[in-house]
Predict the structure.
Amino acid sequence: MTKTISRRSFLKITGGTTAGLSLAATLPDRFLLWAEEQGMLKATYTPTFCEICFWKCGVMAKTINGRVVKLEGNLAHAGSRGKLCGRGNGGAGLLYDPNRLKTPLINVGARGEGKYRKASWDEALNVVAEKMTKIKEKYGPESMALFTHGTPTDHFLPLIQAYGSQNVGMPSFAQCRGPRDVGLELTFGEGIGSPERVDLANSKVVVLLGSHLGENMHNSQVQDFCDGIARGAKLVVVDPRFSVAAGKAHTWLPIRPATDLALILAWINVIVSEGLYDKAYIDSYAVGFNELAAAVKEYTPDWAAVETDIPAGKIIETARLMAKNAPAVCVHPGRHATWHGDDVQRSRAIGILAALLGSWGREGGLYLATTASFPKGESKPFPTPARDALNLGPYPFAGGEGVTQVIRSATITGNPYPIKGWMVTGTNLMKAVPNQKETIEAIKKLDLLVVVDVMPFDTAMMADVILPECSYLERHDALAVGKGKSLTVSLRQPVVEPRFESKPGWWIAKELGKRLGLAEYFPWNTLEDKIKSQCAAWGVNYNELKQKGSLTVPNTSNPYITPLNQPTFKTKSGKIELASSELKEKGFDAVPRYTKHPQPPAGEFRLIYGRSAVHTFSRTTNNPELNELYSENEVWLNAKKAAELGISNGAKVRLENQDGAVSNAVRAKVTERIREDCVYLVHGFGTNSKELSRAFARGADDQGLITRFAVDPICGSTGMRVNFVRIKKEGLDA
Amino acid sequence: MPKYAMVIDQRRCVACMACVVACKKENDVPLGDFRTRVVEKTEGTFPQLRMELRSELCNHCDNPPCVYNCPTGASYKNKDNGMVLLKKYRCVGCKSCVAACPYDARYINEEKGFADKCTFCEHRVKEGKEPACVATCIGKSRIFGDLEDPKSAVSIALRENHSEVLLASAGTKPRVFYIKKYGKPE
Amino acid sequence: MELTVTGANAITSPHLHVWDWRVSLYLFLGGLSAGLAIMTSILHVRKGGKLAEGEIAAVTAPLYVPLILSIGMFFIFLDLERKLNVFWFYLTVQPLSPMSWGSWGLLVFYPICILYALAMLPDQYRPKLTLPFLINLSERLRAYRLHLAACNFGMGIFIGIYTGVLLSSFVARPLWNSAILPVLFLTSAMSAGAAFMIMIAKEKKVKLFFTKVDIWLILAEMVLLPLFFYGQYTSSGAHRESILPFFTFNHDYFWYGLGLLLLVVILPAAMVLKFLEVQEDHGEELTPVALMKMNLSALLVLLGGLIIRFSFVYAGQLSHLS
Ligand SMILES: Nc1nc2c(c(=O)[nH]1)N[C@H]1C(S)=C(S)[C@@H](COP(=O)(O)OP(=O)(O)OC[C@H]3O[C@@H](n4cnc5c(=O)[nH]c(N)nc54)[C@H](O)[C@@H]3O)O[C@H]1N2
Ligand SMILES: Nc1nc2c(c(=O)[nH]1)N[C@H]1C(S)=C(S)[C@@H](COP(=O)(O)OP(=O)(O)OC[C@H]3O[C@@H](n4cnc5c(=O)[nH]c(N)nc54)[C@H](O)[C@@H]3O)O[C@H]1N2
Ligand code: SF4
Ligand code: SF4
Ligand code: SF4
Ligand code: SF4
Ligand code: SF4
Ligand SMILES: [Mo]
């Protein structure tokens, strides 16, 4: 029996009293809660939305006497429905993390040395503005790039665009959803958005490829998933690891990693060859069926069985299960889709399967987005850059969020033109983008690295200037418009005053804008003013929004296809493209073809990774309330392999990849829950930043071992599950 | 007299730990201590595996050994609502109740020295709210309510499903009921 | 089976961690004082008081009882996390809580053993009490010696049993949850009391008398101990598992295995020694060698009692229902 228990040593066992161990930091809460219960103090609830991940759940923040004591879900919000996930519940841990960035900091050592001095906002902003102005004068504004993720984007994207650069990279594209969205756009003319429009609550069959719902804790999505299961949905989980979702599955298919496309093509083969597809649906909405049918002929279940290590019988059985329950079948298109470099085609295959089942626009499948929207406001147009943006690289279908690593390469080579300044807001590039060596090399070439962050994570600790943004509980941000079943709008507003000298992102952007001569792009006094006028323009009652946190525009929902609610497909043909004309045009396969990926040689394991339910990437690893539950990751290792290697559960090991990159020492989780050919890490751990008292050097950094990545030629996304590691036993160390 | 109870529908649990964090915040549970936990149990060998997810908390036993063993009356069973609660001002920190609980549901507040445990969020229930862990349960796995009310969610859940209690043989008569995987009557 | 628990408390996980050496010492010293109280009463009533004649222990033993008890209670006090609340023990009676009726019992035992000590004070020692009130009291109590001896004896039995019931009442901890435990603890307490008496007694006849008594008590212990393990072994799975620490000779359980091994050596050794002492034809005066042997065997008994308390307190916390 193996036991992993989150605990700290019980100090009392050594005897003595406990008075000295008082946890002074938690005292105020206790007192406040007590005083509230006694009716001496009153609690207030302020609505806002969460930023611990990108689901943006509506929050009701309970404060007593100016201190946030609890976060609860906002019932009026579609993403939370009154509930928060574990991470959202622990959001105040960020607000009160003693390791937070407190003042602007200016680097006084070599770049990356992490030596800083405190600076005033004025000084820090002036330094940044000066350097940015210099870059603009010397190299042109396009030589300044922005890396951004999350709500800071709403403030810093306009800033950088106004400054004159379109060179923007968000890890949400090339390291996350890019290939999925591109694959679906090529098939249906649009993606499934975020929050994904998966109708899991009403599905009769749910198919998860990877998508480790439960560990992947996107709030309302998991609520729907659980509702679906409770209503009796059959669950098929394809995962080399026995994930939590696999634990709930009726059929778990422990696939050989990197062979999902073979499985999907074989499913399509069965459905086409057995004539199980939705003929009426395909006839009215799709083109390219014959081309598809011809192309998938070779992908028989027997063939796929060899590739995927899944018995042909199971492949046929699951294909028929889907067909039988169509169209209420949700083959989840996934979210983090940058796996092996052919990810657009895998997503295409999923889209094609969904189309054959007729599940796009159907109850229990993938529902249609509301067509309602708010009127676009007018703002001063941004200058057109003199030189083309290079952030899409040579990839014909790269998306508007930009391809991070292309900007990085250009920074290193100076081609096609030099990139001399990086502004980084809300992303920890060292953890988010593969091959850290390149990131470091690029940073060395810069004249300016300015990071806007809440916490001193790895990337921030390499900056010339660090600008401390206040946490999401202390600021206004842009209105969040949701286009799920209905059109919704949600407000982020401060729950408490910013702590220390931290400032909201909008203020930082506006102040920088002022210093860069771009004040006219920020024609409002405070962001709240802007929000108010936006609300007025949208016909949204600001006071009501302020009070409720989230409003749903009535009568904007039309999720399913009906005779009166016909879908439109914004593809070239105006139909679902089973064979993609656009791909053919650009010289790619119109119908996905299987390409074989290398498998690890004997003695090595493919490195795969995923989520812990209580963490978001690296950003929560130092959060006291979440760190308590899971303070370091473990490397999952198949029990049989572990026995061969003589590694016992809990033993410390290091991982070394094919290029000689070695991880921190990390505990082995010896388990039956994973195949023999791969090892698994929860992403985000093993930070190098000594400023993080809880997270520093805890666990192993998967990104540090991802020195190789397979770029998808269609959209430029980086397949990151292509590295092989060996396991090295660590010397006797408790 | 309400008879409060919790039903945990294990089929709906996804081990997301929202309950664990919410409980800690709601009740300001000290660092390192917990009133509720989540157990992830996997049996079998690859690839024939079974998983059980089970959130656990104080069972508010009708036959509570923690109360019986408390020498000061600090631990008591509330006669009005059946909750097993604590009068902290009476507690001497003898830890008998901790030893007596077969479910390891208790801890000692290291700072103050008193025993502590899940209260079924009595303060919230009094205000007509659900316990914090129930309110935030992502899977709606935790159901709370009054057994005396046949229309309550707990009564319905217990009527419609097989349910079990933990360590029934201990004779503690728990008031937290578990609906296991595939426990529904055919 | 793979088990991952998120949100476990260190005080109960991976196993119970509530009580340590303080409670072990409390149980041992509480038991010793109870055993000694029993033995004192026996000493005084035996042969209509003849056995106690000329025996200094007849005076000192009753004084040791409250002293040892106080030290024992000091250790349980040390263990309380909220010492200032200790008065709550005496503002309530919790009939199902052994700790509650134990603390009331101790409250009764305390004055009884003190009154008893006063009552048993021979005339020549009485002036040493200095306080006229005490001297007076001591004199008055003379008349109730027999009653007090009976009470003292009864309370000794009660407290001896209580130290075992304190543990045996926990359904949650299968190692403790055995009806034999209170009997075993009582026997061990009496045996320790007899051993202590042997050590403080001066007279040969007294020493030999309690040696004989102790032989029977050790014998009883040697029957009870295997019976206890047998009972656990033939009970539920959790009970059976609960005795594993004593029989698993690996690193984690080293101390438990050693403890049992020591008991297996100590108890018979003490008994044999005592048997030889009784058999031996001692002269008028005990030789220094004989004295040493007697003290040694008594010490072994005390050590055995200590081992039993420590190993049971700790091992019981490893056991759990499953
Ligand atoms: N708690 C939590 N939830 C999150 C996040 C978070 O940080 N924390 N982040 C959110 C974001 S932005 C994203 S993009 C999503 C990402 O979450 P998902 O979209 O669910 O990510 P995946 O990569 O699909 O899933 C990881 C799973 O894929 C399995 N896997 C690895 N290789 C293969 C393979 O070759 N084939 C198959 N079929 N499975 C494989 C792994 O074993 C693991 O179980 O999560 C979101 N939700
Ligand atoms: N190896 C590997 N790489 C991955 C992934 C993986 O699973 N494995 N996942 C990929 C995916 S799906 C994604 S979406 C990306 C995520 O990539 P990122 O979004 O970069 O994720 P984090 O590592 O959490 O870094 C977030 C940074 O933003 C900061 N931050 C948090 N809140 C705020 C705020 O309110 N304001 C500001 N200014 N800063 C804030 C945090 O302190 C932290 O420094 O990573 C991708 N990269
Ligand atoms: S899913 Fe969780 S972390 Fe993400 S926004 Fe919602 S509550 Fe916050
Ligand atoms: S679960 Fe434990 S603490 Fe809760 S009432 Fe039952 S015995 Fe007492
Ligand atoms: S620790 Fe407190 S609540 Fe528990 S038994 Fe002792 S006095 Fe009662
Ligand atoms: S009922 Fe309240 S105290 Fe009990 S586990 Fe749930 S949140 Fe915690
Ligand atoms: S919140 Fe609900 S679903 Fe999540 S771990 Fe707790 S009981 Fe399970
Ligand atoms: Mo992502």
User: Anything to note?
Assistant: Chain B touches chain C through 48 residues (CB under 8 Å). Strands of chain B lie at 4-9, 37-45, 48-56, 75-77, 84-86, 107-108, 115-116, 142-146, 176-179. The radius of gyration of chain B is 16 Å. Residues B 13-19, 38, 55, 137-139, 141-142 surround iron/sulfur cluster (ligand 7) (CB under 6 Å).
